[in-house]
Amino acid sequence: MATLEVSDTLPHLEEISAAQYFDAHSPPPHLAEHSAAAESFIKHHVNLSRRVVLISSGGTTVPLENQTVRFIDNFSAGTRGATSAEYFLDKGYAVIFLHRQFSLLPYSRHYSHNVNCFLDFMVEEEKTGKVKIEDQYQREMRDVLRKYRYAKDKKLLLLLPFTTVTSYLFMLREIAIKMQPLGSAGLFYLAAAVSDFFVPPSRMVEHKIQSGDLPGPSHGEAERLVKGGVGGKKLVIDLDPVPKFLKKLVEQWAPDSMIVSFKHPESQLETDPSLLLAKARQALDRYCHHLVIGNLLTTRKHEVVFVSKQDDTWIRTNTDDTEIESLIVPEVIERHGAMIAKTVERLRGN
Ligand code: PMT
Q: Where would a tag sit more exposed on the chain, N or C end, judged by fewer CB atoms within 10 A?
């Protein structure tokens, strides 16, 4: 079984700044195209005085090779983000859905992946050979289809994919800056699971790490990335900390928007609710944004805690029939509304 250790016996290296991180990496190939799409989407909704939420969803990856065969992944199916997006759209928000490629998407999530494969909802008519939706699913599927079509026709949903932590961060910065004209009508709802560690480009090997290169007296290219263990078959990966970008977002990229982050504690052993609360509060104190929603991977579908400067509020659902996002999103929207009202009041006062 693989284990992950965070070593503090190694000499403590200075964490690089966000600016240094961007300088050290090339932007993702589709950045300009995605940026243009985001800009025109935002302009359209600014003109309509509509609120816009950027939802980040799914896990970011950390490649181990330039020509990537292997990578480290952060767990997230995209359920939180995709489900929340639907409730935001229901409430009239326009949604920029910054998601991990091939993770769950709003609306199609009901009929995708292996639990809800769309083929299981279909039958072939005996006489005609035509394929149709089974009678028992007609109503539910029609409702989902109508909402999906509405969001598409009204240009309310923009889907932008990422894979690596670097592409995620470039896109987040780019879109945040484009969202500035929205002022307080912009909302960030950061549900993506973002990598905390990465392999710096200076230590990244070009091609697939060969097991034959481990560790061996023949010091191949892989040696810069890995250190050999006993018996020569141990791959030790040396990762640097990714700078915390939330601080940049709050202070520079989106100073007027409401920023909501999700927090799950590092260890799943931390099941104590008071510890979850403490970790969420620590994140709020560190980044000074508006709201942290604490959750644990094991109970995230039934329980979350809202931590803000003002209070802590637990939200729970006891049944599997109620999606917890149907309770989370209205609560976030109410707080967003209060923040907008405060901004308007402040501007009137000036
Ligand atoms: O999609 P699901 O399967 O439903 O799972 C949803 C979820 C459990 C992944 C989601 O609800 C959740 O908790 N997402 C946040 C996961 C995460 O990155 O937590 P964290 O404790 O590592 O980071 C906290 C915050 O710091 C995040 O908002 C992140 O944007 C930010 N961060 C993280 C790393 C980094 N280098 N810079 C950051 O700013």
A: N
